[in-house]
Amino acid sequence: MRKYVIMGVQGSGKGTQGGLLAAGLDLVHISVGDIFRWHVKNHTKLGAQVRRLVAAGELVGDDLVADVVRDRLQLHDWNYGFVIDGFPRNRRQAEFFLESYDLDGVIHLDLPDEEVWRRVLARRLCSRCGMDYNLIAHRPEVEGRCDVCDGDLVSREDDTPDALARRLGDYHSKIDPVLELFRGKEYVMTIDARADKATVQRAIRTRFNLPPYEG
Global pTM? Predict the structure, then answer.
């Protein structure tokens, strides 16, 4: 059983790399962002709470994130292990994680802030089916329209310059101490996230001596 954590600033490709790693190793990919987006899309009570926070320009609280992750892991559907992105969010959560799970490694996707700005502000989401696009790496065939369902492509509600500036500040203040804790346990492998997704995935697998990526 393998258990990995993927950490990185917004726009570093945590979800993409987590999905590729999970698919190749038969792991369950647990994405905090995807969980919240599902709740928003399906108009659950939690989704309404998240939507209010986003509309107010606020960040989802660490305690709420911890509750969501704990509930998800308790499903125990990860027979061969899991790869989780978007958690832990602070040192206290990281200490809980180390006490509760025998991690195989922490993948730190390193991306300079200037590249974060470029990538995040180019992201688009289909308003109908939820398909993700990026106007840098994954442009739709018809500008502003989804290739899958022809829905309108829109920016995510929290992909604004003000919101991104707050998230970057929050990330560096909280996540740097988490990485320091994990480095003390010799779990962390730092990967340059500026390359294309296939190159990044191959680097991850090489550093952790995992089966090669053939994509």
Answer: 0.78
